[in-house]
Design a protein that fits this description.
Elements lengths: L2 E4 L9 E7 L6 E2 L4 E6 L4 E5 L4 E4 L8 E3 L3 E6 L37 H10 L17 H8 L10 H10 L17 H12 L30 H16 L2 E9 L1 H12 L6 H13 L7 E4 L2 E4 L5 E3 L1 E3 L2 E3 L2 E2 L7 H16 L13 E5 L18 E14 L5 E14 L5 H16 L7
Parallel strand pairs: 12-16, 16-17
Antiparallel strand pairs: 1-8, 2-4, 2-7, 3-6, 4-5, 6-8, 9-18, 10-11, 12-15, 13-14, 17-18
Helix pairs in contact: 1-2, 3-4, 7-8, 7-9
Length: 445
C-alpha cells in the first residue's frame, strides 16, 4: 500500500506553504531522508524529505500551488509494490497555482548541497552562500566548490546583502574593507562607505524646468516594486493582526541607571552585554509570573506557554524578521547575548533556519539604536503581546531633597491583544518589568 507523504507543519503559526519546486520526479527512486520538494513557508524555504526509501509516485500539486499543512502531497511505493491505477502519473493539472514563487527572489534561501561539497567547503572555509550550484535543481556539488577555490584571490568576497546594497548605493566593492571572516564585506561595511561618501562635497546640479509635466522624460517616472516575497508576507500578517486583534497600548518609563552600571562594569572586563540581551532575560523571567502575556491565540483557544520563547525583531533590507531565543528564562545573560548576536548576523546573511524562527511566545522590537524616542508595535500573531523599546535619554529628576538629579530613562510601550490581556494584567507586567530592569541584580534571582 502506498505510503502518503504529508506537508509537515514546521511551526504552530504555519497554515499553508507554497510548492517552490519538485526535486524528484514521479517514478524516481528515493532513499529515506532524500529531499523530494522545496516549499516556502513564512519567509523561509525548506525541503520536505522522503520518510522511507522507495519510489516516488502521485505528485498531487504543481509548482506554485499553495498547500495546507498536513495535506498529502505525494505517495511512496515500497520495493516490490505496484502503482495503484487510480493514482496520477504527474502533478494534477486541476490544482491551481495560487501563488507566484520565484526561488531567486526568496528572502532566505536554503540551498541543497551534496555531502561531498559540504565537506570540501568546510575544509576550505568556503561560504556556501557565495557558491552557485550547477547540479540538478541548482544543487551545489563538489565541482562548484572547487571552482570557487580556483578563482583568483583578487575577487571581492562579500555577502549577498552587501552586494545588493552596494549595487543600490553605487558603491564600488573594490574600495570597501571587509570586517567579516577572511575579510568578507558585510552590510555594515557598505553602509559605512555610503555614510563616508555622504559627507563629501556635492556638486550643484541644474534641474531642468519642464513647461508641461506630461512632457517629462521617463527618468522622472517612479520605480515600481511589486509587493511580493518577504514584503508581501509581512504586509499580510501585520494587516491581519491590526484588523483582527484589538490592540491596547501601555507606556512606561524605566530608569536605566542600574543597566548602565552593569554594562559599564562588564565593559571594564572586556565583556559585552547589549540592552536587547538584558531585555530578553528580564522579559522572560517576568513572563513566567504573567502567563497571559506569554500566550498565543488560535481561533478560540488560548495557549499559555510554560517557557518563554522571546522573538527579537531584526531589520533587513527587504523587511523585518523575528528570530527566536528559545527557553530564554533558563539561559544565562551571556548565552542570550551570544544567541542574539549570532541570530542577527545569520538573519542579515540569509542563514536562518525555520527552527530559529518558530514557536515564539513574546516579541521585543528595539529601535533605540536608531534614535527613536518611543513607538508602538503591531503584535506578531498568534502572540498576544509585543514590547517596543525606544532610546535611552538623560533628564533631570528631583532627588529625596528636591534637588535636580541627572538620570537616564528608557521609554517602552507594550502592545497587547485585548481579547486575551486585560489592562490590569498588562500594567502588572510592566510594573514587574520596571522593577527587574531598575535592579538588574534581580535577574539572577
Amino acid at each position: 500500500m502506498p505510503i502518503p507523504i504529508i506537508l509537515p507543519k514546521f511551526g504552530f503559526t504555519l497554515e499553508t506553504a507554497d510548492i517552490v519546486q519538485w526535486l524528484k520526479n514521479d517514478g524516481d527512486s528515493v532513499r529515506a531522508g532524500d529531499p523530494i520538494c522545496e516549499v516556502t513557508t513564512d519567509k523561509v524555504n525548506m525541503e520536505v524529505e522522503a520518510p522511507e526509501s522507495g519510489t516516488l509516485i502521485g505528485l498531487r500539486f504543481e509548482t506554485g500551488a499553495t498547500v495546507p499543512v498536513t495535506e498529502i502531497i505525494a505517495y511512496l511505493l515500497k520495493p516490490g509494490e505496484v502503482r495503484p491505477s487510480d493514482l496520477p502519473t504527474q502533478a494534477s493539472a486541476d490544482v491551481p497555482a495560487t501563488s507566484e514563487v520565484r526561488v531567486e527572489e526568496a528572502v532566505i534561501q536554503i540551498t541543497t548541497v551534496s555531502p561531498l561539497a559540504q565537506r570540501v567547503a568546510e575544509a576550505a572555509n568556503i561560504d556556501l552562500t557565495q557558491v552557485k550550484g550547477t547540479g540538478p535543481n541548482n544543487r551545489i556539488i563538489r565541482r562548484d566548490v572547487e571552482n570557487v577555490l580556483a578563482q583568483p584571490e583578487g575577487k571581492v568576497r562579500a555577502t549577498p546583502a552587501a552586494r545588493h546594497l552596494a549595487e543600490q548605493s553605487g558603491v564600488d566593492l573594490q574600495t570597501v574593507s571587509g570586517s567579516g571572516p577572511r575579510g568578507r564585506i558585510q552590510t555594515v561595511d557598505v553602509q559605512a562607505a555610503v555614510e563616508k561618501a555622504a559627507v563629501q562635497p556635492i556638486k550643484p546640479v541644474e534641474i531642468p524646468v519642464v513647461a508641461n509635466p506630461t512632457q517629462a522624460s521617463n527618468a522622472d517616472a517612479p520605480r515600481i516594486v511589486k509587493l511580493e516575497g518577504m514584503r508581501k508576507t509581512i504586509a499580510a500578517r501585520l494587516q491581519k493582526s491590526f484588523q483582527t486583534a484589538p490592540h491596547i497600548f501601555f507606556d512606561a518609563q524605566i530608569d536605566t541607571s542600574g543597566i548602565d552600571g552593569l554594562r559599564q562594569r562588564l565593559k571594564t572586563r572586556n565583556e559585552k552585554l547589549s540592552v536587547t540581551a538584558i531585555l530578553v532575560k528580564a522579559c522572560a523571567g517576568v513572563l513566567m509570573r504573567h502567563p497571559w502575556l506569554n500566550a498565543t491565540l488560535d481561533g478560540e483557544e488560548i495557549a499559555l506557554w510554560p517557557t518563554a520563547n522571546i522573538g527579537v525583531a531584526v531589520a533587513l533590507e527587504a523587511g523585518l524578521i523575528v528570530p527566536v531565543v528559545h527557553h530564554a528564562e533558563r539561559l544565562a545573560m551571556q548565552t542570550i547575548q551570544s544567541s542574539v548576536e549570532t541570530m542577527a548576523t545569520r538573519a542579515r546573511e540569509n542563514g536562518l533556519k525555520v527552527s530559529d524562527m518558530v514557536d515564539g511566545t513574546f516579541t521585543i522590537s528595539n529601535l533605540g539604536m536608531f534614535g527613536v524616542d518611543r513607538f508602538t508595535a503591531i503584535i506578531n500573531p498568534p502572540q498576544v503581546a509585543i514590547l517596543a523599546v525606544g532610546r535611552t535619554q538623560q533628564q533631570f529628576v528631583p532627588d529625596a531633597n528636591g534637588q535636580p538629579l541627572l538620570r537616564s530613562f528608557m521609554n517602552v510601550t507594550l502592545s497587547a491583544d485585548h481579547r486575551v490581556v486585560d489592562g490590569a494584567q498588562a500594567a502588572n507586567f510592566l510594573q514587574d518589568l520596571r522593577t527587574v530592569l531598575e535592579e538588574p541584580a534581580l535577574l539572577a534571582w
